[in-house]
């Protein structure tokens, strides 16, 4: 096995993956009513292409990208559009969504596969296909993949990194996909490699996912995928953060305020590579994904293949979650996921998991800050979190920015380790919002 | 921000979920992350209390029940003062964070075993009420409360504060023997009231220095069988506690490391002989590391997180500054001991140090103006 890569800073939360890491992916039934929000990505919301009463097919494009940084939306069922109106969204806001009544027929849109001939297509044609299939980053940030695959010619890409770190506790969806769909993911990686023209391809996996490492190792040491290198990473949060992954494997550092492409790197999540594979090989748009449903409040934890638009409540109930007893329901991982206020929100493209937690975390502050510096040593970005939080609290945003507020990736390592139980990320989020609002107002 | 405080629970829209008779399910909302480590402020304070225990036990061995009594009284007075201050200031109670216990112990450890109990109470009350609570309590004080209490008593009652008895086990014999034959009687009263540092300071000032039982003196310094404040004498006991704190990450090794190295290096240079460890001169760097309050100061006082820098480089600088000031006071100043004033002076520098030692952020590009 190759040497283990890592980065400076970070924390070691309990992995909590044992409940689901060996459970094969099960297919969850399509919902009777699917709700597809028009915004499931970073960038402009998609424009609705259908109206109330219209019949749609499974995989039919029902929302088209609006502008350069946007993504297409597809129906995850076949049936009739009930409404196009604002619905509760996991983010806590109301977002326009398309509500579709499932007719149970799963009558598919005629997909247009490219198949094995992908090797003969140009990067532009492949990117077009990926865009048409609405693929976005499925690790959590949800940036439209076709945009990430189109760096300006002034920024040549020599290194493609596949993110299979899955450093968030509880989640096992990526590792299950890596184990069960190994060849498909690796083919997706080769498609990505061709598009970018990257020389080096690294597949990064944390060393607490031995089964996934073995699966990938077996295939990349064979002849078919020998252009991909496995990079075993030390299990440490936030190893799966884009910058930490790049630095651990390549020793390069993304410049402050810059992007990975500035240093010749592109990072794609392992599950995103699978979505790329399905889009290119079979023309299947991103209308379903694998999620992990777990947590102390879930009686039978599972890894599930679910349709986008399935209500959270129905999945939790099917996994035996005692919703009345759960203190908190989180969409995503426990370190960066969103606490849901409404369980009728749909699964969206970057939902990696659902956690029913039996413990509520402390409020914004339990004890006063004693300047112990735990946050400083845990910060992977080398910030001084407690100081920035104090500046934000005193609304001294100039000083907060001087201390690199805007470089914070909101990974939550500082909060995890803080003995005073201060939710520093809260101050960073508020601070960034205020700084951006002030910047926008000046323009 | 509706998610500012997760004590505000939000009711799910759908009331169809069965939640027992009458009750509606409530979900907590908060900003991520949703898990926390087991570290807590009382946990950190408890670690410090545990780390102070070996020195506490050794103080009772060497100074007897008076050490025990003074420590208990100081802790009681500190906790009571914080309790009352919170009542008067109409703040939530904070004694359960254990920080007052730490302060009380440290005040006691900085007193001579012969001080009257009322003085111990006064020092603790000053430490908590004036140095800590009026500035807003834990986390808001700008100088170490225990050291403020000690400085207050030193200024008010210098005689009692510097009257040190010999230990129960006849400590200081090595030094006392050497000095009583050599030093002029009016320079010091080596039997009843000299700490090792005082002995050195005044004997050296008189230019009289005889060969003494150096090995015996060094053993006494290590075990704590010498005159001095209650908690400062046993280098071994303090080191055990200090290493424990570093091991459990309650203390950053940078501060004590920089402090010790600076003191050692400066006294080695000033010594002129290049000797680290000789019998003919007590003023070797080894002696200065072990004598006086350096172990207590470097491990337990300078490392007080509230009153030391938060940046890694700042912590090195802070330890360095403490070391330089300790050297200057001990070598050139009027006092034989300089640890507590060094730390207090450096406490005042902390905001400045933090400001100029901002760490280089990941991927930070050097700005070209």
Task: List key phrases describing it.
heterodimer; A: 443 residues; alpha/beta; Ubiquitin-like (UB roll); Rossmann fold; 3 domains; six-stranded mixed β-sheet; four-stranded antiparallel β-sheet; 27% helix; globular; B: 369 residues; mainly alpha; 2 domains; 15 helices; 55% helix; 0% strand; disordered N terminus
Structure explained in plain terms:
The complex is a heterodimer of chains A (443) and B (369). Chain A is 27% helix and 19% strand. Chain A is an alpha/beta fold. Chain A folds into 3 domains: 159 residues, Ubiquitin-like (UB roll) (Roll); 167 residues, Rossmann fold; 69 residues, no CATH class. In chain A, the strands form 4 sheets. In chain A, strands 1-14-13-17-15-16 form a 6-stranded mixed beta sheet, sandwiched between helices. In chain A, strands 2-8-7-4 form a 4-stranded antiparallel beta sheet, with no helix packed on it. In chain A, strand 15 and strand 16 form a beta hairpin. In chain A, helix 1 packs across helix 4, helix 3 packs parallel to helix 5 and helix 4 packs across helix 7. Chain B is mainly alpha-helical and 369 residues long. Chain B has 2 domains: 121 residues, no CATH class; 174 residues, no CATH class. In chain B, helix 1 packs antiparallel against helix 10, helix 3 runs parallel beside helix 5 and helix 10 packs parallel to helix 13. The longest helix of chain B is centred in the N-terminal third of the chain and has 24 residues. Chain B is globular and about 75 Å long. Chain B starts with 40 loop residues before the first helix and ends in a 13-residue tail after the last helix. The N terminus of chain B is likely disordered. The chains are: A alpha/beta (443), B mainly alpha (369). Chains A and B meet through strand 15, strand 16, helix 9, helix 12 and helix 13 of A and helix 1 of B.
């Amino acid at each position: 096995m190759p040497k283990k890569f890592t980065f400076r800073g970070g924390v070691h939360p309990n992995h909590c993956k044992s409940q689901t890491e060996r459970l094969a992916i099960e297919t969850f039934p399509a919902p009777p009513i699917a709700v597809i929000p028009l915004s499931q990505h970073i960038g402009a919301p998609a424009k609705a292409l259908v109206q109330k009463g219209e019949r749609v097919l499974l995989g039919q494009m029902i929302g088209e990208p609006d502008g350069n940084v946007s993504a297409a939306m597809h129906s995850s069922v076949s049936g009739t559009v009930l409404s196009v109106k604002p619905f509760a969204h996991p983010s806590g806001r109301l977002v326009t969504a398309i509500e579709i009544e499932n007719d149970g027929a799963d009558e598919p849109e005629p997909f247009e596969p490219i198949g094995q001939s992908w090797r003969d297509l140009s990067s532009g044609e492949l990117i077009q296909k990926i865009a048409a299939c609405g693929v976005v980053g499925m690790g959590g940030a949800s940036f439209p993949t076709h945009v990430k695959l189109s760096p300006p010619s002034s920024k040549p890409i020599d290194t493609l990194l596949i993110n299979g770190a899955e450093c968030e506790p509880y989640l096992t969806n990526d590792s299950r996909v890596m184990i069960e769909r190994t060849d498909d993911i690796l083919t997706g990686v080769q498609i990505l490699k061709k598009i970018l023209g990257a020389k080096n391809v690294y597949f990064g996996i944390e060393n607490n996912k031995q089964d996934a490492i073995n699966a990938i190792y077996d295939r990349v040491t064979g002849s078919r995928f020998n252009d991909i290198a496995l990079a075993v990473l030390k299990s440490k949060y936030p190893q799966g953060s884009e910058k930490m992954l790049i630095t651990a494997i390549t020793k390069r550092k993304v410049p402050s305020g810059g992007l990975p492409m500035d240093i010749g790197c592109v990072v794609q999540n392992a599950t995103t590579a699978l979505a790329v594979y399905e889009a290119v090989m079979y023309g299947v748009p991103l209308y379903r994904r694998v999620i992990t449903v777990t947590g102390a409040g879930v009686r039978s934890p599972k890894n599930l293949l679910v349709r986008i638009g399935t209500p959270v409540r129905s999945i939790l109930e099917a996994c035996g979650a005692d919703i009345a007893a759960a203190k908190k329901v989180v969409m995503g991982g426990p370190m960066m996921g969103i606490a849901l206020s409404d369980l009728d929100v749909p699964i969206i493209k970057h939902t990696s998991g659902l956690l029913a937690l039996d413990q509520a975390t402390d409020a914004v502050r339990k004890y006063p800050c004693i300047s112990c510096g735990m946050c400083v040593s845990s910060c992977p970005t080398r910030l001084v979190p407690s100081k920035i939080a104090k500046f934000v609290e005193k609304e001294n945003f100039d000083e907060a920015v001087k201390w690199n507020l805007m470089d914070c990736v909101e990974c939550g390592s500082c909060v995890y380790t803080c003995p005073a139980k201060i939710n520093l990320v809260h101050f960073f989020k508020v601070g960034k919002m205020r700084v951006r609002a002030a910047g926008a107002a000046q323009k | 921000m509706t998610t500012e405080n997760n004590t505000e629970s939000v009711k799910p829209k759908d009331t169809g979920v069965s939640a027992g008779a009458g009750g509606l399910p409530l979900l907590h909302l908060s900003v991520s992350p949703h898990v926390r480590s087991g570290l807590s402020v009382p946990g950190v304070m408890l670690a410090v209390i545990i780390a102070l225990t070996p020195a506490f036990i050794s103080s009772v061995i060497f100074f007897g029940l008076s050490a025990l009594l003074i420590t208990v009284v100081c802790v009681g007075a500190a906790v009571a003062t914080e309790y009352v201050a919170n009542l008067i200031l109409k703040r939530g109670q904070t004694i359960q964070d254990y920080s007052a216990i730490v302060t009380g112990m440290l005040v006691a450890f900085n007193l001579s075993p012969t001080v009257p109990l009322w003085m111990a109470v006064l020092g603790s009350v000053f430490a908590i009420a004036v140095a800590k609570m009026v500035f807003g309590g834990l986390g808001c004080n700008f100088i170490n409360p225990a050291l403020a209490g000690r400085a207050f008593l030193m200024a008010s009652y210098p005689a009692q504060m510097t009257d040190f008895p010999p230990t129960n086990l006849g400590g200081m014999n090595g030094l006392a023997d050497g000095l009583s034959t050599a030093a002029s009687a009016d320079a010091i009263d080596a039997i009843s009231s000299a700490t090792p540092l005082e002995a050195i300071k005044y004997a050296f000032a008189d230019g009289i220095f005889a060969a003494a039982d150096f090995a015996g003196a060094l053993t006494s310094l290590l075990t704590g069988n010498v005159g001095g404040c209650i908690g400062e004498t046993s280098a071994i006991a303090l080191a055990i506690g200090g290493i424990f704190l570093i091991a459990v990450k309650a203390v950053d090794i940078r501060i004590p490391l920089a402090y010790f190295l600076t003191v050692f290096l400066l006294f080695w240079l000033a010594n002129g002989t290049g000797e680290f460890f000789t019998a003919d001169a007590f003023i070797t760097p080894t002696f200065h590391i072990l004598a006086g309050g350096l172990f207590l100061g470097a491990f337990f006082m300078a490392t007080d997180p509230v009153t030391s820098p938060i940046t890694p480089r700042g912590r090195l600088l802070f330890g360095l500054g403490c070391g330089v000031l300790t050297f200057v006071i001990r070598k050139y100043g009027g006092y034989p001991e300089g640890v507590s004033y060094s730390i207090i002076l450096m406490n005042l520098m902390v905001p400045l140090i933090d400001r100029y030692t901002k760490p280089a952020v990941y991927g930070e590009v050097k700005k070209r103006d």
